[in-house]
Structures are given as C-alpha cells and as structure tokens.
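Practice set, problem 2.
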Amino acid sequence: MKKGVAMSIWGKVRRALGLEPTLRPRESTDEVGSPIDEEAYTAALLANRAEKDRFFKEDPRSPLPPDVRATFQGLAYYPPNRTLRLVLPLERDPSGERIVMQTSTGDEQVYERLGYVSFEVDGEPTRLAIYRDVRSGALFLPFRDATSGSETYGAGRYLEPVLLDDNTVLVDFNLAYNPFCAYSDQWSCPLPPMENWLRVPIRAGEKAFSAHTTQPDEV
C-alpha cells in the first residue's frame, strides 16, 4: 500500500514538469481583479492537461495500474471556467490549529489550518479552509461539492492554492484534480474535512475518472 503520498506526488511532478508557472497571473485584468491574458491562460491550461495525460499513460510514477494505462485515452475535465479562477483575501487562522485528516485507508495525516477564503458560487456565499502541510509547507485545499459522487469523484478533489502575498491567495478551481485513490485503491488519500464540504457545485477542473470512457474538454 502506497500510503501518505497521494496528495504530494502530483504536486511535485507538476512543478518538475514546469506546469505551475504557466498558470500564474500575468497580463491585463479580469473581473475578479486577477491579472490574466485569457487566451494564453486557456492555452496553458489545455497544455497542462495534455501533459498530465502523458504522465498518466507513460510515466512510471503514474497512479494508473498497468492494465488501465494500456487503454488510457485521457482524463475528463470541465471546460475552462473563468468565473472560478479567484484571487481572494486570506483570512488567516491565528491559532494555527493542527487538523488531523482521515485517509481513504484509515490512516491519519496532520495539516495546519492556514486560514479561510470566502467567495460566491451562483450567488451563494461559500467558505473554504486552506491547510498547510506541516512537513513541506505546501498549501492544500481538499474539498467536496454538490457534484461529488455524480459528475466528480465521490471522495472529493484537491487544489493547491498559490499565496500571492501575505494576505492574498489564488484559488483556481480549473486546476482541481482527483486524488490518486480515484484511480487505484493502492493509494492512501486525505479526505476533505467536513468544514470543506460545499453545498454548491464547483463545475471546473477534473471530472470523475472512468477506465473505459473519457469526455473531451468543451472549450
């Protein structure tokens, strides 16, 4: 059993492949106050997804079992959604409370609650906690939403927010991804705490995985 690595491996691989910087803020300004060249952003996002498909099919670190890799056609995603790419004030948690997250295999992993972000989805106020890995310092935002178990993976999805400065964070749900346990039960994945269970749908990022079918991006 590959325990305790399902969240961190893809983040490390993505950074090693150089995918993260292409999706950072750059030019002009969008409606949420985040600098962005929309055409370049969409191109970078689709390139990110294509590179992830290549990693899943060809890389020895792929979470897919060998028999699934042989017929793998690509992951399924929502189309890019500009309204769910958010630059938000970070409401820091002064307590720095340690949060023990249960995993899909019954183990535990410890994170520090960095703070909260608040925003609206379809006019409904929403709040999520952002955590920090106590070992690596990486930011971690696990969540469930109204699509979990139908359109998206039932146990929830992950996101790695970007701290733009001490009090501002980039939360881009177009980068939301499935934990590795969505592809194989050989992985152990932290489960989103109940404070990050949303009643609203987050229709951005990766959809539920099927070993036999894939849905093309709708751009």
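Problem 2, part (b): a different protein.
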Amino acid sequence: MTRDPPEHRCHTPPTKRCRVCALVGGWHDSDLTSAGQKAAAEIARVLRAAIPKDTQVDLFSSDLRRTAQTADQVAEVFGVRPIMDRRLRAMYFHGRRDDLFEQRGVRTSAAEIEAAALRAPEVRDAAVVPSHDRRGAVPFVATALSPDELVRRLHAELEAAKIPAVCRVLPRLPVGSTGKTDRTALRALVDDTGGDGHRA
C-alpha cells in the first residue's frame, strides 16, 4: 500500500498590521529592493530547510509585485508554480480546503482559475465554485467576453486538464451584505441551466 506524500501549503507575505483596500498605496507595483531580494532568498532557504523534500507543496501569493517576486524565489527552490490570488492583498488569508479539488485527475485550485480569468483585461470579476462531482469547478465571470472566448483565454493560461468543463458569464457577480462576492448565491446557480455558459 502506498501513502500519499505529506502536504504543505505556503502563502506570502507574513501577516502585516495594515489595512488593504483595493490597491495598496503608491508602492503596490514596485519591485523588491536589493535588501528585499536577499530577504526573499533567505525566506526560500529557510522554507526549503524546514519542509521535507517528499512533501507536496502548494504556493499561494498575492499578485502585488514585491510579494510575487518573493514567491518566485520560493517557487524556484521548490520547483513549483506560484498561484497568484489578489485576495491575499488583505492582511489575513482564510484558507479553505474546498478551494482545492481534483479535475480530470489533476489537483486544481479555484484561486488559480480565478487568477487566470482575471488576467484578461475584459474580465471585471471572477469567482470559481468548486464541485466534487464529475462536473469539476464552475467559474462565474463578469465580462463582456462570450463563454467560448473566455475558455480560449483560459487555455492560454492553464494546462488543459484544469480548464473547467462549464463556464458561466454574468453581467455582474452577486454581492452579499458585507460587500464581498456571495458564493452561496453562486452555488445555487451551479445547477441552474439558464444563463450564458460554455460546456466543454
């Protein structure tokens, strides 16, 4: 009997005492300084020494440039690709096990699909509802793109096995009382056959 390797999930940066609203000040798009690059290399070294080599590593990072450059150094050490998630601009990260799911035999992250969709300039917002049945995940995207065009964009960003079988395009994503995307409402739409969508 074989045993799956242990799993370790990393995210950068460490928690900071700051408030983040949309973009972070005027420095959000700046590069690491030389001191920051040395610090990033040290972070990567410490993590590599602390995590056993047979451990499967998932690396999540904010899309802010300094953080992404730190993640790149960590990713190089571990031989993985960082998953950029703009939600990590906030001061803390609500980790959810249901963010990870298996699709076509490949472990996939909802955050990775959302980030790939958001790289299209025409996409205003995106949220992926993971599903543990044969459908896989269902992305809901606020965009003027057609579902077929959206899928073509995703093919340029993701490996084929991670492309969702169904994509739904909405004028806007539902928002709850807190101002955040209402994922409960989106889950209710997963079984809705109406609306504009693509099916692979």
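Answer key, part (b): The helical segments are 34-50, 65-78, 110-118, 147-157, 183-190. The first strand starts at residue 7 and ends at 12.
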